[in-house]
Specification:
With about 120 residues, the chain is mainly alpha-helical. The chain is built from four helices and no strands. The radius of gyration is 14 Å and the shape is elongated.
Length: about 120
């Protein structure tokens, strides 16, 4: 592997960022600085932490940033559930986005285990 960009989990998390931005466009305007902002930051944090971790020289640092990415993924999963429950996002869209984030969480968990 030459770069973090070769990681499938990074690629999938980049796709998920775009999906989150698209989904949150339809949220109520009063949520722009609330849950929309939080969801977008958490989504961007996932591939960003993967990239930063792979840019580090030591395995311990890599593992720390991958753990940060996992935390952001879990945070985003929770925010998606809240958004679905509040009716901000259609159930079918929420299920698709939740399926994607669950896959990213599984992949990150496996990657973290492989770096230890």
């Amino acid at each position: 592997m030459k770069s973090h960009k070769d990681l499938i989990v990074w690629q999938k998390s980049m796709e998920h960022v775009v999906a989150i931005y698209v989904a949150t466009r339809a949220f109520p305007k009063e949520e722009l600085f609330g849950i929309v902002s939080q969801m977008r930051r958490a989504a961007v944090s996932i591939p960003s932490n993967i990239a930063e971790g792979y840019g580090r020289a030591y395995e311990k640092e890599t593992s720390k940033f991958l753990s940060n990415a996992l935390g952001s993924a879990s945070e985003l999963e929770t925010q998606l559930i809240i958004s679905k429950d509040l009716g901000f996002i259609p159930v079918q869209s929420a299920q698709s986005l939740l399926g994607q984030i669950e896959e990213i969480i599984r992949m990150l968990s496996a990657l973290i285990k492989s770096t230890k």
